[in-house]
């Protein structure tokens, strides 16, 4: 019996040795065969293997697939557990290298796509061109964003806390969202209707209007708002704020349509009644004129603090805090002073709290406060004010964000919204320029080569004035444009002159088109 057992063990060992020898010979033979393969033969074999594996996996049942995946995970886990420290570091380095190679390969393809356009390429299905739906919601402000957008772009991580703009009353709401001929006429001419009611005039160094399939509103130079006296001079027609004190409602509406052509008097009358009822500036002016005195002036304070509040919140001002009558010169430098009759046109400070509401009464129909210097960031957890001030960019970025629960009258105002954006961007740029002018030493501009060149030139020093150096981070400044020019020259050097003309005709539906990023802006080379 023992002898038979020994024979059986010998036979098992012999069979195992034969199997190992056969498998080794098969591996060596397969290796030699693959080494002798030509590139087309290798591609054919690999394609057949992939197709065979795909067919096998498609034929799998759900339990078989789960069993295979579980075995793969367990086998991979055992392999990683048995790794030594050098082996693990080598594996991780290989993974990082492979990922970087894939990213660089994808980036090179996208970078050169404009220079080597392939009509057969399926750009729509490229993951790098899909930004997905606007499905991310800010936990602090409920703003809707795309996945790749910065979490703090809407409210700076909850530090900028603004009350939401209230839904507009009728008839303004219906005119903004309606589909009637009257609503379409109103939206097409919304800038004209806003001009009928604005209390300040819009001015700029140079205004450019481009019509066509994509109307564009541009300005060059400085943007400013101006305001005149409360009553027109003799033999002059009332304009802007003066119309509010020119007769009854019918006469006011007639004068507005006379000043602004292509407007309908029935729409103007409806909007006029709405603003008389809701706008605190309209109500305040009428209340102030019931108590006029000789040599009076109406003053709109720049930094009025509501009663009982430690600092100015973002609420709409009440009637008694918007404007007051003053005699004499007791007022601040940024207050708006309205005289009874004067031929002088005054500019309003763009940091005045009423700057936006006086110019855009159809957007800020309640007279809500705009941006001013006294706005403070708040603690996201406690809601208490902090010492850090809110910048103009933070304020207006928060105002313009889309929210699923808000009407957001700004985003529905079409051409008026375009004008508002241009004006507020000019305000942001002025604030940045003011910071740069007041912080030249902090920015260490004395180390800039351009400054040394200006000081050492042979021109008249008296003609130079106060020299302000703009850093390269200021968009549109000389140093910024110089760096962008150098980048452009590098592209021309590598890829040739920009002589391509791209034309695209899309037949995608609107929801699909919103999820596709058709162009990617590259940074510095």
Automatic annotation (TrEMBL):
Residues 16-99 are annotated as: Disordered. Pfam families: Helitron_like_N. Residues 16-91 have a biased composition (Basic and acidic residues). Residues 395-500 form the Helitron helicase-like domain. This is Helitron helicase-like domain-containing protein. PANTHER family: ATP-DEPENDENT DNA HELICASE (PTHR45786:SF74), DNA BINDING PROTEIN-LIKE (PTHR45786). InterPro entries: Helitron_helicase-like (IPR025476).
């Amino acid at each position: 019996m023992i002898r038979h057992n020994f024979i059986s063990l010998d036979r098992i060992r012999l069979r195992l040795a034969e199997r190992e020898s056969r498998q080794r010979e098969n591996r060596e033979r397969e290796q030699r065969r693959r080494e002798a393969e030509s590139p087309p033969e290798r591609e054919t074999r690999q394609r057949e293997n992939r197709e065979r594996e795909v067919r096998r996996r498609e034929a799998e049942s759900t339990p078989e697939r789960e069993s295979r995946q579980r075995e793969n995970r367990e086998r991979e886990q055992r392999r990683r557990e048995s790794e030594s420290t050098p082996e693990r570091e080598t594996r991780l380095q290989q993974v990082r290298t492979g990922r970087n190679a894939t990213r660089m390969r994808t980036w090179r393809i996208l970078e050169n796509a404009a220079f080597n356009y392939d009509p057969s390429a399926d750009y729509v299905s490229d993951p790098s061109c899909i930004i997905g739906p606007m499905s991310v919601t800010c936990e602090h402000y409920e703003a809707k964003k795309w996945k790749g957008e910065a979490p703090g772009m809407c409210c700076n991580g909850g530090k900028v806390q603004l009350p939401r703009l209230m839904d507009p009353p009728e008839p303004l709401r219906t005119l903004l969202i309606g589909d009637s001929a009257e609503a379409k006429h109103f939206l097409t001419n919304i800038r004209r209707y806003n001009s009928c009611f604005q209390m300040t005039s819009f001015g700029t160094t140079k205004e450019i209007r481009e019509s066509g399939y994509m109307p564009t509103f541009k300005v060059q130079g400085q943007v400013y708002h101006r305001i005149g006296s409360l009553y027109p001079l003799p033999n002059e027609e009332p304009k802007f704020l003066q119309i509010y004190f020119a007769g009854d409602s019918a006469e006011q509406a007639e004068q507005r349509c006379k000043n602004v052509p292509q407007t309908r008097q029935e729409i103007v009358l409806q909007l006029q009644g709405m603003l008389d009822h809701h706008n605190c500036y309209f109500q305040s002016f009428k209340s102030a004129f019931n108590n006029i005195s000789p040599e009076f002036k109406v003053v709109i304070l720049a930094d009025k603090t509501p009663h009982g509040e430690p600092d100015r919140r973002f609420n709409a001002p009440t009637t008694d805090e918007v404007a007051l009558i003053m005699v004499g010169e007791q007022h601040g430098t940024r207050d708006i002073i309205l005289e009874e009759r004067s031929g002088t046109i005054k500019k309003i400070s763009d940091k005045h709290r009423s700057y936006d509401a006086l110019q855009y009464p159809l957007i800020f129909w309640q007279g809500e406060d705009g941006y001013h210097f006294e706005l403070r960031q708040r603690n996201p957890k406690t809601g208490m004010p902090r010492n850090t001030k809110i910048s103009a960019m933070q304020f207006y970025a928060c105002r313009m964000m889309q929210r699923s629960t808000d009407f957001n009258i700004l985003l529905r105002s079409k051409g008026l919204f375009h004008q508002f954006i241009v004006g507020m961007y000019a305000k942001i740029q002025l604030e940045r320029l003011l910071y740069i002018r007041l912080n030249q030493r902090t920015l260490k501009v004395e180390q800039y080569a351009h400054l040394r060149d200006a000081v050492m030139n042979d021109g008249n020093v008296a003609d130079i004035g106060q020299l302000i150096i703009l850093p390269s981070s200021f968009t549109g400044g000389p140093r910024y444009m110089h760096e962008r020019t150098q980048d452009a020259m590098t592209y021309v050097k590598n890829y040739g002159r920009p002589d391509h003309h791209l034309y695209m005709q899309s037949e995608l539906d609107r929801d699909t088109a919103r999820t596709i990023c058709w162009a990617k802006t590259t940074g510095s080379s």
